[in-house]
Write a structure and sequence with these properties.
homodimer; alpha+beta; globular; DNA-binding
Chain lengths: ~250, ~250
Amino acid sequence: MNETTFRLKDCGTCPIRFNAVCARCEPDEMAHLDRIKYYRNYEAGQPIVWSGDQMDFVASVVTGVAALTQTMEDGRTQMVGLLLPSDFLGHPGRHKVVYDVTAVSDLTLCCFRRKPFEDLLLSNPNVSQRLLEMTLNELDSAREWMLVLGRKTAREKIASLLSIIARRDASLHSGRTTDGARFELPLTREAMADYLGLTLETVSRQISALKRDGIIELQGTRQVHVPDFGALLAETGDDSDGGMPE
Amino acid sequence: MNETTFRLKDCGTCPIRFNAVCARCEPDEMAHLDRIKYYRNYEAGQPIVWSGDQMDFVASVVTGVAALTQTMEDGRTQMVGLLLPSDFLGHPGRHKVVYDVTAVSDLTLCCFRRKPFEDLLLSNPNVSQRLLEMTLNELDSAREWMLVLGRKTAREKIASLLSIIARRDASLHSGRTTDGARFELPLTREAMADYLGLTLETVSRQISALKRDGIIELQGTRQVHVPDFGALLAETGDDSDGGMPE
DNA sequence: ATGATGCCTTGACTTGGATCAAATGAAAGC
DNA sequence: GCTTTCATTTGATCCAAGTCAAGGCATCAT
């Protein structure tokens, strides 16, 4: 069972307090949200909703990782979104989801029933403004990812994914983003393949190649050390800065 | 010079009145927008803004087609968005654009300077609600496109693009969406390749193949006739309904 | 008409990543 | 310890799409 079950009751100590959809809220607005929120926990691998289902709630990711995936009839699947802590799940104004949502790791969501949340959007510009901003950022990330999927080589794809995970991880642990990153991959090789539009064999081969070339070091299969972050960025094919939005 | 230069002054007769960001506005709100809007016209091929530029306005596409593209240092390019009439261009709250924007065909934009528009978002929930809704739809389309880029074959990609253009075209001309569609491709082979993550040679070959197989008929190089729309959809690889959002 | 210019098509050949098939390793239950 | 299970690695082969290279076919200016 999941050991990381989330115990918070109070938004004031919430780890995503300043990054989530509620980031702009005034104390009285927080109090309102506090009253209508509830938590849900999922174990790694558990489905959250299936494509075509009604989704009766929206949520913020508090801890863990969730994936949005689309599947074709013949079984080909493509991950179309990776939700990390503070990311928002749901589509106010749309009742059906058009992709499967799955917990990739153990996961805690801070949920709101859809109707009350939609009412709140209408009455509370701080929430709707923030949600618009987050959605525009998501859209930019999705477009960034289209470049990765459409034009990058397998090696560049892997390097891009590693650098994104490293960066998101660093920004969470508020560590120094200097050279020398160390992080845990929250994804299996297969999930990485689904994200990158590759097969898991190709993912494995390219990771081995990056290891052989000294770009990364592995402890076990998930623990990654990047001795020279610039060297990793050079492998992504991006122009120098690497292209993390903002 | 561009013959289709747009002459409207009055929002009341605007062709995108009921689909654009202003769709939900009340008469007095329309009057306000009417006062601060202005039109810009571009010829096919003209750049609108370059990646990294400041963009001092936001806009709705009134007529024509605009493309968002990202380019890697070595010249590989990927189209990351295709803006058709009523689509919104711009990122309120972000000053720099992160992709090139180009007029693909002759184009008319209905523009608002950024600052007044941002003020309006704060004071006018009908606009910001509508913009949120449109942005969420864009995000869903982007995710749909990630499946196309990551997992579909060249033939499926072409069929997907043709069916999307056919559908958007049909919904504009409010024609019957029955079998038998006829439309004009607004894109060169190269632009299609950039959209689909292919080379222009592959695009050409696949279009020839679809023609050979009787799925499409061509008059010249741009005028497309689809005798059996179901047959085209079957080539997209999608499950029967084709996946147009809502 | 005659080039010149810009799309577009077609052909011949190459290749990066997919596919098919084992083998290895690591954790979990008995 | 031993077996099962699941994730990962590695190898051998194949093929869809890329690359390189002509040629065709409009449109436009001279």
